[in-house]
Amino acid sequence: MNLLANLLTSASLLLGFASLLFSLRHDFTFACWSIIIAIALDGLDGQVARKNPVPSPFGRELDSLVDVVSFGIAPAILGYVFIYRDFYLYAAAALFFYLFCSIVRLAKYNITSKEELVNSFSGLPTAASGGVLASFILIFRKKEGILLPAYLPAFFIVLVLVLTFLMISRARYLNLGGFKKLFGAKLKFAVFFLLFLLILQAYLNKAGVTVFTLLSIYLIFSPFVVKRLNSDI
């Protein structure tokens, strides 16, 4: 099981690297989807790893290092190349701060005891923050030469700073254990429904809006749900 989990983690790294290459080629749709699919693999490798009776410290460290690439570096480069193209100090500084805080978030996770991760994470997961940025860009992706809305650069920086703050905050966000407690036996049905919805919206060319909306709901409401779950214990 540990080998399979590590292979899935490596596949997530491959997608993060592919996203970087696609961004540099201005293939922004593929760059966004590479990050979004990497999120699914990140969740899947965690599930596989938990089925192994002997935890793998190597796998946990590998997963965090891959997350830096797929959900830290890749979204930062994607956003910068897509929106700014030329050098802007404020954008570079904001995205560097985002990358730095994603690393801090992952380092804190690696030293957190299992008892503190029963139903939730401390701080917004890097996969969720990377998914928000990728899906946001997926909404606005344009062909070469078409101007973006004038408000987009400033709005993107605000979004980056909000995600940066949430990653290093003490806000609690649902993990798989929390979702299992919240949905119970209906969790599998909820997952299949979301997959069906995403495939349908991708066919309708609205996947960016759907993913961004779902992750925004998680970002805003998850701390309140965690608080409610903890009060019921």
Oligomer: single chain
- Give me the CATH architecture, please: Up-down Bundle
SSE arrangement, N to C: HHHHEHHEHHH
Gross morphology is globular
Helix content: over 70%
Q: What would the CATH topology be?
A: Four Helix Bundle (Hemerythrin (Met), subunit A)
Task: Give the CATH level 1 class.
Answer: Mainly Alpha
Major beta sheet summary: 2 strands, antiparallel
Protein described:
The chain has helices spanning 2-24, 28-50, 57-84, 89-110, 126-140, 152-168, 176-183, 187-203, 207-232, and strands at 120-122, 172-174. It is mainly alpha-helical and 233 residues long. It has one domain (2-232): Four Helix Bundle (Hemerythrin (Met), subunit A). The protein has a two-stranded antiparallel ribbon. The protein is globular and about 50 Å long.
SSE layout and pairings?
Elements lengths: L1 H23 L3 H23 L6 H28 L4 H22 L9 E3 L3 H15 L11 H17 L3 E3 L1 H8 L3 H17 L3 H26 L1
Antiparallel strand pairs: 1-2
Helix pairs in contact: 1-2, 1-3, 2-3, 2-5, 3-4, 3-5, 4-6, 5-9, 8-9
Brief account:
This protein is mainly α. It has helices at 2-24, 28-50, 57-84, 89-110, 126-140, 152-168, 176-183, 187-203, 207-232; strands spanning 120-122, 172-174. It has one domain: Four Helix Bundle (Hemerythrin (Met), subunit A) (Up-down Bundle).
